Prior knowledge:
The protein is of the alpha+beta class. It has helices at 15-19, 22-31, 41-51, 109-122, 140-145, 172-176, 181-198, 213-228, 242-258, 301-313, 329-334, 351-381; strands at 7-12, 55-64, 67-81, 84-91, 103-104, 129-136, 156-162, 165-167, 202-207, 261-268, 271-281, 284-292, 320-322, 340-347. It starts with 6 loop residues before the first strand and ends with a helix.
Amino acid sequence: MALDNGISVTAVTDDAGFAALREQWNDLADVAETGTVFLRHEWFDAAWQWLAKDCERLILLVKRADRLVGIWPLVTRRRTQRKIGITAVEFMAVPDTQVCDTICAPQDHAVVVGALFEYLRDHGRSWDTVELTKLPAGSSTVAYLEDTRGQGVAFEVTADGSNPQVGLGGTWADYYATRSRRLKKGNNLVANRLKKKFGDIDMRWIRADSADEQGVSEALEAAIGLSSRSWKRKTGNSLDHSGPNAFIRKLTAHALAEGWLSIWVLELDARPAAMEYQLAFRGDVHALRGDFDDEFSSLSPGTFLNWRLLERLFDEDQKCYHMGPGDNAYKLRWAERAPEQSRATSYGRSLRGRYLSVVERRLRPLAASVAGWAKARLGRRD
């Protein structure tokens, strides 16, 4: 689709076209407003291994005079909403994705997002919903999409949780002194129980800069095995399932080659009991997966591992530990801050899109308002 000022938008849907973008893609990711490993070509290559079964790739490229200046990494998916089948446009995200955003240089942001917006508007009958999740709340993309009313496609921006973090710039002693007595007491109880039952506890840290292929392979298999024995096996997202398994194996290959890989394994009686799979990228340590064997759940090996690995990270040359999206109580006990994230949702001009727009933006809020009014009225009678 050609626009004014030499700007054009094209779509890439095939493997070869995606693979050919790697160098240009990463050049843009390096200068993007949201600088993170989750915008790298390698991350989306791994994510696609999980998504390929249920989605079609729709990578939108913005070019200025044949030079790539912006990317939206999207997929289309058939899913059910309000009991009807719809075509949804989404970021190419998996449950382990911590953040996503427009991939472009800051000075090109308005032009790029504007061009992508026009593409969606002009193709509004080919999709029913667009849902862009895990956007940084302060992103320029969010600011643009909040100002789209009356332009043919209207985005509604809502809260999408937070991503708790711990700064690693100071000392462990200073940081831990700020944590609650309840947290410290719980940690000590877990440590005493484990020491009483098992004596010394073995923690292994496998990193891209120090591990050999065999060590990485053993750590990966331990992580997959632990995930299969954790509570997550019931969700379909444990690492032994086909999609997540293909994702983690591809990601591990990329992370090892790029120097991002970091896997922690805690062993009890020479058996893996808990693990954390991380990516370490330019001073940011991202905890993607933390699992423990259900057999040891009463001893809380995951709690112990999280405590001790965080202590160790303060001795490394890192800036920030990202625990991943979710306002879980255990994360908030450790977190110093929790940057908010946003979700941008729009409905297309198709019949299904218009129906969902009426239901979600008018009828649902109206029903909630009536229910609140009725509850308040009944409360006054009581």
